[in-house]
Amino acid sequence: MDTAHDRALFDRLIGFDTTSAKSNLALIDWAANYLDGHGIATRLTYDADQQKANLFATIGPEIPGGVVLSGHTDVVPVDGQDWSSDPFRLVERDGKFYGRGTADMKGFIALALARAERFKQQARRVPIHYAFSFDEEVGCHGVRHLLADLPTGERRPRLAIIGEPTLMTVANAHKGATILTTRITGLEGHSSAPDKGVNAIMAGAEILQLIGRMAEERKAKPVAGSPFEPPYTTFNVGVIEGGTAHNIVARDCRIVWQYRLMPGDHDHDIKERLGRFVEDELLPRMRRVHPGAAIVTEADIDLPCLVPEPEGAAEALVRELTGANGTSVVSFGTEAGLFQEAGMSAVVCGPGSIEQAHKADEFISLDQFAQGGRFLDRLGDWVAKQ
Ligand SMILES: [Zn+2]
């Protein structure tokens, strides 16, 4: 492959400031144009404000199945980070490419785009699809629109390779990530008569205890032989806020908490248990004093785990292409679980290291970038043989 072309596209992509809070349309329009220049049609799906878009494109026959190359176009902010060079310019130094998104994960997207013409020649019987999303870094919101827009049933793509940085190892599992806000509304009153009010902070404390119990139960039963560290679903309470003053019964309380679900653990166990405790126990007690008392829990982010697939088709293909004889897990969440939920076999494999992601002076080594390119070349060769 033409490595100068790989590099030119990489340079172009890094130049778009696609921090999640901003629009990614400049990048998406540019990529759509580029693909159009190669006779490849694209489908865009937008957020509610039409300021961000996903790009989906099919190279090859419009038939069921095929392999999705998935990447997110957004990057994390550079605010407050001490960069040695302009983060939105690709800079080569000491065998590394520096820039925001070099590792996470515009390298993979650049390499995929650079092979569009070659894939077009190769994808005669099995299509290759590009799925480039927005808002991954803030909860994988964008790709949900893209997935909802895909053809259903038989006509779905069959496999998805999520090119997040794994140093080209094959990752077939990660934990989920669910981030929730619980808002408790009680009744204000004078602190000398606490029973005439409903203390939202005290109600919150009972919810915290339940979260603590659910965490302890899982910690007590780690999954033997699991590659995850720690090998159980974890919980964290990150923010608690509420009340006005020491002599006022607290009317409001807000708790921001999360759990990272292990593949095989059950989300509904957590949600149902919290729901039962609130509806059957806590809320009735509060409403005896104040019928307007309320407890509402909303998930701000709800990212499913990537569950290892027995004899997974995506894993088998990527192992064949990389020559890897084992698999690993990743410690971060990706869009892979969403592709899997949408009925595709999914695996995570891409160039660069997550160690360098989200930091100042983010980089990908030239070697990793080249390895990523060779991997996609082999994918093209494999597709041509089908
Ligand atoms: Zn990423």
UniProtKB/TrEMBL annotation:
<dbReference type="InterPro" id="IPR011650">
    <property type="entry name" value="Peptidase_M20_dimer"/>
</dbReference>
<dbReference type="InterPro" id="IPR002933">
    <property type="entry name" value="Peptidase_M20"/>
</dbReference>
<keyword id="KW-0479">Metal-binding</keyword>
<dbReference type="GO" id="GO:0046872">
    <property type="term" value="F:metal ion binding"/>
</dbReference>
<feature type="domain" description="Peptidase M20 dimerisation">
    <location>
        <begin position="172"/>
        <end position="283"/>
    </location>
</feature>
<dbReference type="InterPro" id="IPR036264">
    <property type="entry name" value="Bact_exopeptidase_dim_dom"/>
</dbReference>
<keyword id="KW-0170">Cobalt</keyword>
<dbReference type="Pfam" id="PF07687">
    <property type="entry name" value="M20_dimer"/>
</dbReference>
<dbReference type="InterPro" id="IPR050072">
    <property type="entry name" value="Peptidase_M20A"/>
</dbReference>
<keyword id="KW-0378">Hydrolase</keyword>
<dbReference type="Pfam" id="PF01546">
    <property type="entry name" value="Peptidase_M20"/>
</dbReference>
<protein>
    <submittedName>
        <fullName>Acetylornithine deacetylase</fullName>
    </submittedName>
</protein>
<dbReference type="InterPro" id="IPR010169">
    <property type="entry name" value="AcOrn-deacetyl"/>
</dbReference>
<dbReference type="GO" id="GO:0006526">
    <property type="term" value="P:L-arginine biosynthetic process"/>
</dbReference>
<dbReference type="GO" id="GO:0008777">
    <property type="term" value="F:acetylornithine deacetylase activity"/>
</dbReference>
